[in-house]
Amino acid sequence: MPYVKDKDGNVVEKNYGNCIFLCVNPNSENLKNTLSYISNLCLYMMQQKDNPLNKNSESVLKEIYKNGAVVFEMPSNVFWDCYLSYNRGQMEYSDMVKELERKVNTYLNE
Predict the structure, then answer these.
(1) What is the pLDDT of residues 38-57, one digit of tens each?
(2) Residue 102 phi/psi, 5° resolution?
(3) What Å distances lie between residue 108 and 10, 44, 67, 76, CA to CA?
(4) What is d(CA 65, CA 12) in angstroms, rounded to the nearest whole number?
(5) Rounded CA gap, 58 and 19, in Å?
(6) Which of 68, 77, 105, 107 is deepest in the core (most CB within 10 A)?
(7) CA separation (Å) from 8 to 4, 11, 12?
(8) Which residues does 10 contact at the CB level (< 8 Å), separation at least 6?
(9) SS3 label, residue 105
(10) pTM over 0.90
(11) CA–CA separation, 14 vs 47, rounded Å?
């Protein structure tokens, strides 16, 4: 399997797999909507042309993991967007902290 390239076009020596890890609070007041969202997200992801599962499924997936650098990341809108707004002078430090606490609490507790 060929190596993938990063955003700048440089060859990465490992296949890069970005994983999405979803946790669902079974006691959430938003359980029905959350499960519906996850279902819709999975349907959307499976329809993408570059999804290796749409091609040779198990054999392709094994090759990716065999030479893979699989990462689990917090979505950029949870942390990075606030941080960039602060660095650009669009947000005060105290406002950034409050917004980060709100987003991280929502992300981790919902």
Answers:
(1) 899 888 877 877 766 666 56
(2) -65, -50
(3) 34, 24, 30, 14
(4) 14
(5) 16
(6) 68
(7) 11, 9, 10
(8) none
(9) helix
(10) no
(11) 25
